[in-house]
Amino acid sequence: MRTRKILIAGGGIGGLATAISLLRHGFDVEVYEQAAELREFGAGIQISPNGNRALDALGVFEPLARLATNADSKEIRLWNSGKTWTLFDLGDAAVRKYGYPYLTVFRPDLLRVLADEVRRLQPDAIRVGARCVGVTQDARSVTLDFEDGRRASGDALVGADGVHTRIRRALFGPDDVLFSGMVAWRALIPMDALPARFARSVAVNWVGPGGHLVHYPVQAGRMMNFVGTLEGNTWTSAPWSTPATRDECAAAFAGWHEDIQTMLAHAPSVTKWALCGRAFLDTWSRGRATLVGDACHPTLPFLAQGAVSTIEDAVVLGRCLAADDDVAAALTRYDAVRRPHAYRMVRGAADNTSRFHNPALADPAEAEAFVSREWQSQAISDRYDWLFTYDAARVDLDAADRVPSIAT
Fold this sequence. Notes:
Elements: E1 5-9, H1 13-24, E2 28-32, E3 44-47, H2 49-57, H3 61-65, E4 69-70, E5 73-78, E6 84-89, H4 92-98, E7 103-106, H5 107-121, E8 126-127, E9 132-137, E10 142-146, E11 151-154, E12 156-159, H6 167-172, E13 178-190, E14 202-208, E15 211-218, E16 223-230, E17 241-244, H7 246-252, H8 258-265, E18 270-277, E19 289-291, H9 306-323, H10 327-356, H11 364-374, H12 377-388
Parallel strand pairs: 1-2, 1-12, 2-8, 5-14, 12-19
Antiparallel strand pairs: 3-7, 4-7, 5-6, 9-10, 10-11, 13-16, 13-18, 14-15, 15-16, 17-18
Helix pairs in contact: 1-5, 1-9, 2-9, 7-8, 9-10
């Protein structure tokens, strides 16, 4: 039988993970990236056990783990006093419970590991400098049109081009990027510039009225990843990120604990990002084309599942296409399996906004009662176990739940 060719628009984490999944199932793959080179913003991400399970299914868990930090635990800290609660133990405890560790990872390291594996499997798969401007399809093929006049045709198309996706628009018509009203301040800080007390393999989440802040080590502990989020902002249009200053960020977090101000004082640079989303879709697939990752389920980063869920999409999509010679039917099955799970995750991340930013956190007595209630062991299990136990390589492809057409 002829080897089916799959086009992938987007050479980020989602596009490369999808390429690996498809290549491992024997497909011919062409990845089209609009930038002149593969690149990823220099920041950290958290990869929970379900994400590492999916990466293992793609054959890249071991090389990534060598570059990552294995988190020992996650902590909740109160924004002003620094009072600390353990959210859950990780390290060996995570491996015993879920089978895989909880890693904190430098995003460019993940992208490089994925790209290396794509090139190992198919050296000519990745094509850069290819800006997509249109999509057409018929009963036999789908075609991408590029800004420079080139065209590429294949048996299926995967839109992996992020929250500001062009493929989504081509398939389903225009819809707006939705600004959440929240801004994230990001920095990478050399660990050796910080006092010794910061050099712990712990993911820390500071919670406060109207905002929260997360920091954790990446690059095997050499760098501290810093992300602070605040409500009550305005942002009207692209670009959706902009350079900022340490002083500007320190002023935004005035009154927060001295540890936060210490980290900011040693930050080489700070960037400010608008946190954006999109409305839910009734389906991710149309004919021979579908979407993965932020193109179909952008999320607030409050469950640390954005990249993880994208990688899971890739694993399930590869399985669906391998299991069915009918491309449209395979993409419909992928949509039915992944969309309910991903949208549940998006809702769960949005729900955490009220936990991380609650007004009760302004008062010390109320704050202690609130944190003790919201992060007691059963509540934590309810919020995280269904995510951490998910296995994209084994989930039943015939278990197709339905989701509402809009977020509720």
